[in-house]
Design brief:
Order of helices and strands: EHEHEHEHHEHEHEEEHHH
Mean pLDDT: 88
Shape: globular
Helix content: 25-40%
Largest sheet: 9 strands, mixed
Low-confidence stretches: 297-312
Number of helices: 10
Distance between the termini: 14 Å
Number of strands: 9
Structural class: alpha/beta
Strand order of the largest sheet: 6-5-4-3-2-1-7-8-9
Strand content: 5-15%
Radius of gyration: 18 Å
């Protein structure tokens, strides 16, 4: 298990490329370089994170299933007794992909399925039909039963503000875990009044509780404050040249005062309100699970955040 809170949970962006055009994703505003993680970078980064005992999630501003090495890399991490999850969207589940994903044995799969209302789904995800998305998702659900933890992640926007109970009930009938999270501004990068209106979660505090226990690593091994940094301006280090302990120390120094990055001044991510804990980081998987469950409970009244990692 991690010796420091900074790397308890890590989003590994194996690519920031994606063919979908989801309305709630500001990826068109990315100015940092785009590409796919190389085998050399993955080997170096993953070895450090596995040694640290981090919970690794293939996620970020791209489509991890588009990376040709994704299944091999998931299997490799699992074979080294480390936990790994993946966040995907139905558009990525082309023929045969679901079976290969199950065979790679991730600890968990989170499917970004924004709404079970056809009109809302197709407005938020204009590159595919609701029927096709649901068919692909149900195929993966059936394959995962008894093998892998799977949950649906819905999103509450200005066009479906009253659909949360319907969403959870729909997936519960199919015996699938789900949660609906509030659409936030992605560090001030999302500007679409049709689906999102700025909020003030945590802005006045100047702190970010999420920053304490969660790290974000780009396809180039850059450690940024979070995935909402689309420019790379919040660079804290690089896991090719820097050790985990050095970057963790830098993060701790940043936590000692108000968040210094401009992206943080515009962020209404609910989890930034989480009060940084003074206790020691989790010593085993059970403690880590209890920690993330406690955050889930604490944030139910804060519109819930979609930045919570999967709980194993």
């Amino acid at each position: 298990m991690p010796s420091d809170w900074a790397f308890v949970s890590v989003d590994m962006e194996i690519t920031n490329q994606c063919g979908s055009e989801c309305l709630m994703c500001p990826r068109d505003s990315i100015t940092r370089s785009k590409g796919m993680m190389s085998e050399e970078v993955f080997k170096t980064v993953s070895e450090k994170l596995i040694r640290e005992g981090s919970l690794i999630t293939f996620s970020g501003m791209g489509d991890p299933l588009s990376h040709p090495k994704v299944f091999e890399w998931i299997s490799g991490i699992r074979n080294k007794n480390c936990d790994v999850g993946i966040v995907i969207n139905p558009a990525s589940l082309h023929e045969g992909i679901s079976q290969r994903l199950i065979e790679s044995r991730p600890n968990s799969i989170t499917i970004s399925f924004p709404s079970i209302q056809k009109e809302v789904f197709e407005r938020l995800c204009p590159t595919m039909s609701f029927e096709d998305g649901l068919k692909r998702t149900q195929e993966l659900v059936n394959l995962s039963r008894g093998n892998i933890g799977l949950r649906m992640a819905g999103i509450r926007t200005e066009i479906n503000s009253d659909g949360s109970e319907e969403y959870v009930s729909f997936w519960k009938k199919l015996d699938v875990r789900s949660n609906v999270t509030a659409c936030h501004g992605r560090g001030g990068n999302l500007w679409n009044p049709d689906i999102y209106r700025p909020k003030t979660f945590g802005l006045e505090s100047g702190r970010c509780g999420l920053f304490q226990f969660h790290a974000f690593v780009t396809w180039e091994a850059e450690v940024l404050a979070c995935c909402h940094d689309l420019t790379g301006d919040t660079r804290i280090g690089n896991l090719i040249n820097d050790s985990v302990s050095v970057i963790a120390e830098r993060k701790q120094n940043i936590l000692g005062s108000s968040m210094p990055f401009s992206v943080c001044q515009r962020c209404d991510e609910p989890l930034r309100q989480y009060i940084p804990t003074q206790s020691s980081p989790p010593k085993n998987r059970n403690e880590r699970r209890r920690f993330f469950h406690s955050i889930n409970r604490d944030n139910l009244s804060l519109c819930q955040s979609d930045r919570l990692p999967s709980v194993y």
